């Protein structure tokens, strides 16, 4: 299977809907659901602290720390399954990753709001490889500034075993989200492989 370019202006988005064989994806979904120490973290939303509508975990090389709201977040070590996946994703994308953010969407009510993965720690040309396991969820992309990038929002259905790659300048011009859905109630796991470039140099302190 291979990554196919989705033609969008000011973006480089590629998708392989069948990156992992269905039985491999199903086994991984079960293993990671069970062994990852999932956390339910708060976030600041318009100045108020609220719980994230999903569970998360952060794994990576010890140097791949990033600071967030003045806190230095230490990654958990790679598990054998995550290490092997990283290698497979690196081979398929010709890129290097030193960390992975895991999101567990427990039901269709768990979600991810509109954002870009453009934190300074990801450098000027972020590359994000996003692997999905479990239930299919709709991934939305829309221009950050619709008068600059003349394109309608798009939707991609990310099924278990799919790999989505977002290369520069996607994060600069586009936002993405995983909205709530009434349709799907089964859990979904998403792994975004990232390269943290300047570790603790971000966010002052
Ligand atoms: O769950 C997804 O497909 C997207 C996750 C995401 O955008 C992120 O972790 O930054
Ligand atoms: Mn993202």
Observed structural traits:
alpha+beta; seven-stranded antiparallel beta sheet; four-stranded antiparallel beta sheet; 15 strands; globular; disordered C terminus; binds 2-oxoglutaric acid; binds manganese (II) ion
Structure explained in plain terms:
With about 200 residues, the protein is an alpha+beta fold. It has a single domain, classed as Jelly Rolls (Sandwich), CATH 2.60.120. Helices cover about 15% and strands about 35% of the residues. It contains 3 helices and 15 strands. The strands form 4 sheets. Strands 1-2-13-10-15-8-5 form a 7-stranded antiparallel sheet. Strands 9-14-11-12 form a 4-stranded antiparallel sheet. A two-stranded antiparallel sheet has the order 3-4. It is globular and about 45 Å long. It starts with a strand and ends in an 11-residue tail after the last strand. The structure holds 2-oxoglutaric acid and manganese (II) ion. The site of manganese (II) ion has 3 residues, from loops.
């Amino acid at each position: 299977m291979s990554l196919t370019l989705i033609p969008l202006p000011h973006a480089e988005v590629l998708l392989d809907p069948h990156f992992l064989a269905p039985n491999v994806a199903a086994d991984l979904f079960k293993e990671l659901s069970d062994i990852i120490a999932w956390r339910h973290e708060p976030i600041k939303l318009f100045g108020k602290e609220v719980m994230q509508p999903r569970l998360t975990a952060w794994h990576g090389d010890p140097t791949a720390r990033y600071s967030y709201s003045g806190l230095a977040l230490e990654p958990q070590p790679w598990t054998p399954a995550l290490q092997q996946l990283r290698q497979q994703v690196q081979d398929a994308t010709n890129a290097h990753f030193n960390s992975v953010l895991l999101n567990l969407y427990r039901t269709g009510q768990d979600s991810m709001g509109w954002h870009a993965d453009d934190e300074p720690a990801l450098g000027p040309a972020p590359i994000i490889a996003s692997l999905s396991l479990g239930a299919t969820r709709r991934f939305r992309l829309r221009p950050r500034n619709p008068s600059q990038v003349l394109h309608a929002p798009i939707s991609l259905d990310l099924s278990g075993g799919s790999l989505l790659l977002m290369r520069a300048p996607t994060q600069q011009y586009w936002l993405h989200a995983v909205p709530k859905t009434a349709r799907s109630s089964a859990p979904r796991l998403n792994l975004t492989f990232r390269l943290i470039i300047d570790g603790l140099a971000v966010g002052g302190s």
